[in-house]
Write a structure and sequence with these properties.
Blueprint: H1 2-21, E1 48-51, E2 56-59, E3 69-74, E4 77-82, E5 96-101, E6 105-113, E7 123-126, E8 139-140, E9 144-146, E10 151-158, E11 163-166, H2 173-182, E12 191-198, E13 204-210, E14 219-226, H3 233-246, H4 251-259, E15 261-265, H5 270-274, H6 297-306, E16 315-326, E17 330-333, H7 345-356, E18 363-364, H8 374-382, E19 385-392, H9 397-423
Parallel strand pairs: 4-6, 14-15, 14-16, 16-19, 17-18
Antiparallel strand pairs: 1-2, 2-5, 3-4, 5-11, 6-10, 7-8, 7-11, 9-10, 12-13, 13-15, 17-19
Helix pairs in contact: 3-9, 4-9, 7-9
The structure holds zinc ion (ZN).
Zinc ion is lined by residues 229, 232, 324.
């Protein structure tokens, strides 16, 4: 009897250990999310479609576009049909299309989604403004949301001059280098821009190294990754403002560059971004669930660009940030009671960010390190602290820039202090 009880107890212990170790997905994830071998994609056919008489035209023949079909519902109402790259998938329905009309007219456009409900406030871009990279010029459109079928209806004044409608500012892979130049990030001789490797569909994954440290000087490393999820543009823009501050000519930034090495990968899913995906890469996989199995080329590229520093005598991984977006400003630190080296950087940093931005709400949710996400790979590989930094989808662009730059300054001060303490 006793041995039966002991066996039963051991079985319970074993199964409970197993359940905490084997992560199978967050509450909002679709099933099977941690199986990161390639999944089939639903093709998006690139084309121009006309409907009605005289005709209203739409096109998805541009980078970042997502439009799967177009119909006339009645004389004044048209439907744009949007599908994800594959399903099941999280509810982050990206759309981007070009629209014009043979005649001057107003038209209502219903945005209808397969497997999703409307989420992102529609943005209107004039064709000639798409070239403007820095302060993204667009107009937010009002819309009628129908909660029963998850659609949104916008009203547009149409003419022969096309306009672009998108879920978030259009920031695709071919904009990245221009953005880095316009923001004066890449123009310095202490910034090295290189291709770290190639995505599944052959796009370059850009890496920036920012430092004024000598190669033979022992230096701590700050790693920055971002845009694993294509529609998460506010997180991406925050990372660029962040890099702008790290490359500025302030005394703080100079001291930081003389002490630290920054390795930044601001767009690690260029295929997903350019193909107008809702979440996945060209392998149909959520990259931020592939940091254990490394089945996808993009996660492998970043791993291989950094993992050589494990145990290296001159380069020591020190802290890492993974930029994302969601419906609020949110930090996911590693649990306070999990020991990292250096320890609890995120918790200290968030206090500074909150103090510097009293008019903004920030949520903090700590997590264990069981999920196969980027932050946890940094912890498991280097023993360091790391954070998932989520920016509100609807954050005003000027505020976003201000918060990101103040966050970069407080992090530089904090990391410099931590490194000095470590050395002394
Ligand atoms: Zn994300």
């Amino acid at each position: 009897m006793r041995s039966v009880l002991i066996v039963a107890f051991l079985l319970v212990m074993l199964s409970s250990c197993k359940s905490t170790e084997e992560f199978t997905g967050f509450s909002y994830d679709p099933p099977d999310v941690t199986n990161t071998t390639d999944k089939e994609l639903t093709p998006q056919y690139k084309r121009v479609i006309g409907a009605g008489s005289p005709k209203v035209w739409v096109s998805n023949e541009f980078e970042g576009a997502r439009l799967n079909d177009f119909y006339m519902k009645n004389d004044s109402l048209f439907e744009v049909f949007i599908q994800p790259e594959n399903a099941p998938i999280n509810n982050s329905p990206w759309y981007a299309f070009k629209i014009w009309s043979d005649t001057l007219r107003t038209a209502k456009i219903m945005i209808n989604y397969q497997d999703a409900t409307h989420r992102y406030v529609p943005k209107l871009h004039k064709a000639d403004n798409l070239e403007t990279t820095y302060f993204t010029k667009y107009k937010e459109l009002s819309f009628e949301f129908d909660s029963t079928d998850g659609t949104a209806i916008i009203e547009l004044k149409l003419s022969e001059d096309p306009v672009y409608i998108s879920a978030q500012p259009l920031q695709t892979s071919s904009d990245l280098e221009a953005d880095l130049a316009v923001r004066d990030i890449s123009g310095h001789d202490f910034v090295k821009l290189r291709s770290a490797g190639i995505s599944k569909s052959g796009r370059e994954i850009l890496e920036l190294e920012i430092t004024e440290v000598n190669p033979d000087q022992t230096a701590p490393v700050l790693a920055i990754v971002g845009r694993q999820h294509p529609p998460e543009v506010t997180g991406y823009l925050a990372s660029l403002s962040f890099l702008e501050e790290l490359t500025s000519d302030s005394e703080l930034a100079k001291e930081f560059r003389n002490t630290f090495v920054v390795k930044a990968f601001p767009m690690i899913n260029p295929d997903g971004v350019d193909l107008g995906h809702w979440r996945h890469n060209a392998g149909g996989i959520d990259l931020n669930r592939d940091w254990k199995n490394f089945n996808q080329p993009e996660t492998k590229v970043v791993r291989d660009a950094l993992s050589w520093m494990k145990g290296h005598n001159k380069r020591r991984m020190f802290y890492a940030i993974d930029f994302h977006s969601t419906n609020e400003n949110l930090f996911y630190p590693i649990n306070t009671d999990i020991k990292t080296d250096p320890d609890n950087i995120t918790q200290k940093w968030i206090n500074f960010i909150k103090g510097d931005n009293k008019d903004v709400d920030f949520t903090v949710e700590e997590f264990d390190t069981s999920s196969p996400i980027a932050k946890n790979w940094f912890y498991h590989t280097f023993g360091i602290d790391a954070v998932t930094y989520e920016v509100d989808d609807q954050l005003d662009m000027k505020k976003l820039d201000k918060i990101s730059k103040s966050a970069a300054r407080s992090l530089m001060r904090l990391l410099l202090d931590e490194w000095k303490t470590k050395k002394s």
